[in-house]
Fold this sequence. Notes:
Elements: H1 2-19, E1 55-62, H2 68-101, H3 108-124, E2 130-136, E3 142-149, H4 150-166, H5 174-190
Antiparallel strand pairs: 1-3, 2-3
Amino acid sequence: MKKIVLALVMIAALFSAACKSKPATYEDDPRSKIVGAEGITRPEWMNRVPKSDDIYYVVGDGREAATDTVRRNLARSDALAKLSQWKSAVVADTMKNYIEEGGTIGNTQTLMRFEQATITRSTANVAGFDQEEYWVDPNGIYHILYSYPKAGLKTDFQTTVSDFQRNEAAAFAEFKANQAFEYLEAQLDKHDN
């Protein structure tokens, strides 16, 4: 009986090994064959937005507009909204974790004001936000890949620290704000696109 069970297990293992296929590639995806309005096939970044330690990538979509110019502008607006959401989430997550893990007690209201100031500044600053590529799908919808240097968020955070330090009411938060900046760098390493 043991020999039969062993033989069945070996057959199942061999069958399983024989059925394993190669990993799927972009070319295997049927969407890679879609030809857009300009005769260009769907780019890989439409399926898998690039990731980088130094750059944040985002795709904006421009729909439902009468002209190409308006669709392109809508795609940029969509991408900027997504960038703003990402920045807000990173800063909020950084501050939340910093306050919780740092054991910060006392006046967290000042740190919350610092968080809001950082979010406001970083969402307003789009320096370095650049178009990388675009693709127009068969329906005329613009899909545009943008890049943003993560160092821009670090700069906004550091500038807010400097501005915050000049405010006498928040002077006691100087040390904590600098620690929060260091924590932001660690959080950026954790957060992928």
